[in-house]
Each structure stands twice: as C-alpha cells, then as structure tokens.
Amino acid sequence: MKRNYMIPAILIILSFCFAPLVSAPAPQDLQTVIQDVNIDSLMLYVAHLSGHTTYMNNGVADTILTRYSYSPEIIKAKDYLVNRLEQCGYTVDLHEFSLTGKANPSETGEMCQGWPPINSDYHEENTGALYKTALVLDNIIAEKIGTTYPEQYYYFIAHYDSRAENHTNGMLYAPGADDNASGTATVLEAARLLAESDILYSIKFILFSGEEQGLWGSKAYAAWARDNNEDIMAVINIDMIAYNIISDNFVNCQLHAGYYNSSFELAEKMSQNIHSWSIDLGSIILTDDAASDRSDHAPFWDIGKTAVFVSEDWQWSYNPNYHTVRDEYSTLNPSYFHKNAQLCIGTLYQLATSSPQTGVRSTLKPSASFSLDEPYPNPFNPQVNISWTKTGNSRVEIRIYDILGRLIKKLESDSGESGISNTTWNGIGGDGVDAASGIYFVKATSDGYTQIKKILLNR
Ligand SMILES: [Zn+2]
C-alpha cells in the first residue's frame, strides 16, 4: 500500500539551519542502527538534491536544478554533499577524474548553455560529432576508520549525477529523484548514523559522478584502488531504490551479484538479513541480468572485488520516469525507500562490526570451466530439467534457493567427468515438503565459480 508523503514543516525549517536533521546517535547495536534509519532524513536529502525544495547555501536559499555531469549545477550538488558530510564530522576528500570521450553513442556531450568550463576543450570527430574531453569532475569520499582493521575497507557507494531525456542541454531540469538521489541519500544517511559508532573495519562513503556518461567516476576510482592495492572487503552500490508502485505485500529489491562467489554470498547474506530483521521486503538475486553491470559497482567487479548492486525491482515495477524530467520527489514510495535503505545500512553496519569469520571477502574471479544451460520447461510443474556443460573435471554442485536466498534443496553433483550432465528438480524441498509456487534460483558452483538461473514453479 502506498501512502502520500509530506515533509513536516519543522524538518524543512531545520534544514534551513543547515544542521543535521537528527543529531548523530551512537548506535549500540545493529537493531538500533536499523531502527534509526530515518525516512524523513532520507526524503529531505532527496528533496534538496532533486530540486523539490530549496536548501541554504552559505546563507542563501538555492535550488539544484540538475546534477547533469556537463552542467555547472553539479558543482552545487557536490558542495551540498560535502557540506552534509562535514556536518557529521567527516573530513571529505575529493577525487578528481576526467570525463573524456564519448562512452554512449547517443551522448553528444555538447556544452550546455552558460557553461564554458576552462578545464575542458572540444574535439570535432571525423563524424562531425561534437564532444567534450577532459572535463574534470569530483568523486566525494568520506572515510570512517575501523578500530581493529583500519586498512580493510567496506565501500558504500552511489552516484550523485543525474540526467533527463535531452542530455545535450545541461541546464534542463533533471531531478533524478530515484536515479539516483535515492542512493545518494542512503549514503548520506549511513554516514550520519555511523558517524560516532565504533566499527572494526573501515568504511568509505563514496559518491561518484559521471555515471550516466559511462561510469567514469567509479572507473577512475576503481583504477586508483587497484593501483594503490586498497584492501576492499566488499562494495555495496545503491542505485534507484525508491520507486515502487506495487502493493506492499509484493515488494522486492534486486540484488545484482554478478559471477563472483563472494558477491553472491554477500547478496545471500542481504537476503537473509531481510528475513531475520523482519523487513517487509522480498529480494531477487540476479547474476545474469543484462543490466547488472550498468552501475558503479561494475568497475569493482572488474578488479576482482566483492560487490553487490542494490536496486528497485525493475521487472515488476519499472519506473516510467527513468531518465526523464518526471523522475521527481513526488513519484517516490517512501515506505519502500525506507526498507531498502534499512537493508543497505544495516548490512553495512553488520559487515563493518563483524569478526573476520563472519565477514565477506573479495575473491578473485576464476575462469569458467562449465556453463549452466537454461532450465526447461520454465515455468515448470511438476519438475524442471537442469543441464550443464563442462570442459574440466571439477564437480559441479547444484543447489536450489528461494527468493529470500534460503537453500531449498541440494541436488546431486555430477560424476566429475567433462561433457554434458543433467539432473532434475521435482519441486520438493530438502525437508520433503512441496515448495510453493514462485521464483526459485538454480545455483551451479564449481571451483569457486557460480552461475545462476531463475526458474518459476507454477503449481
Ligand atoms: Zn543511476
């Protein structure tokens, strides 16, 4: 059930003082952190970032029209974010990178009106297209040091830039409330809540820009992390988590896990958190979704790090305002937003305060020695055929998981010989009970390599 959302006047007044909404608590435990995730705080950040309400900038009321990377307005957004983090007591670092070339074929990158940055120049390609080189932008980093493992980091990331339909005009209104003021607000809220808590591992709260032109900010930062041997335990990337039109009894988030075992394990951990923290939310773990690598975690996958990308459920509730001037504050679902933020922030706190045995750790991406075929029939009833092809001799284990990431059934592994192998699942769980209708995942594992397929049991 959706409800209309209004910011109480008192909160707006507080924001004009440019003070944190709620003073940073010193969380005693995980439950406190989860409960303290404040929807009014999240929505106020979104209201400011998306131009829905004004905010005070050095004593003057101001509005952020767009956070388009080629627009001067993005500097306002950057300053706003830096100020918010500094208010929580962080020393904020800016990581400069160059947005060069033309990542997206439709991206002309024309200079927007009133924006002749001295640090950029233009090239006429032989196609005649005009594009920009060497526009220098900033990633924003606030670091919280862990007391026990200060050199080992969890990254909590989101992109703060936005776009709309006409991205050749950088002064066009591009509120980007869902994409991605929602993720940016979640990073700010996590930074606020954890400002004074004791954590074992270090955390970097990172806000990237240049995402919409091809992940420029995160690519640059991942390259920096690789070159500096940064010890990254895991990355949680939050991009679009506040739009949902579906009734509350069928709301999912998507957890994009890629092909790393360790990323899948983190996604599973998050799924289990939803369950054990009684967050009224489902989750879908995706590993082979076409859009899985289209956000700022992907460069971290590419350097072999554990990373999960958290997003709203595009499959059942696609946001029709995506990349348009209509991606506005008023279209968001605060209750859904709140649950996703609780999941992300709670998981971050859990990881950063966990003993090494229960944390997750990046593992290198192994090369594939097998491929899992599409199960058939799909949807199925009563049984589904599962087959895979191997080039090596390692055993492939097949497990069935439900939508909450719980193990339903461990199927037989193969004989270990190369070639084609197959098995079936009859819709009965390991407990001997018929599984209910719904989405399940077939997970094949061998030599630390994982592939996953989604199946639908339709009784
Ligand atoms: Zn985005």
Structure overview:
- The chain has 459 residues and is of the alpha+beta class.
- It has two domains: 23-358, Zn peptidases (Aminopeptidase); 370-457, Immunoglobulin-like (Sandwich).
- The protein is built from nine helices and 19 strands.
- It has helices at residues 9-16, 30-36, 39-49, 73-87, 177-194, 216-227, 261-276, 298-302, 334-352; strands spanning 55-57, 60-62, 92-99, 121-124, 130-133, 135-144, 149-159, 201-208, 231-238, 252-256, 282-286, 307-312, 370-372, 384-390, 397-402, 407-410, 419-425, 438-446, 449-457.
- The protein has an eight-stranded mixed sheet, sandwiched between helices. It has a four-stranded antiparallel sheet with strand order 16-15-18-19, with no helix packed on it. It has a three-stranded antiparallel sheet with strand order 13-14-17, with no helix packed on it.
- Strand 7 (149-159), helix 5 and strand 8 form a beta-alpha-beta unit.
- Helix 3 (39-49) packs across helix 5.
- The longest helix is centred in the C-terminal third of the chain and has 19 residues, at 334-352.
- The radius of gyration is 23 Å and the shape is globular.
- The protein starts with 8 loop residues before the first helix and ends with a strand.
- Mean pLDDT is 81; it is low at 1-27 and 101-133.
- The protein binds zinc ion.
- Zinc ion is lined by residues 159, 179-180, 211, 239-240, 295.
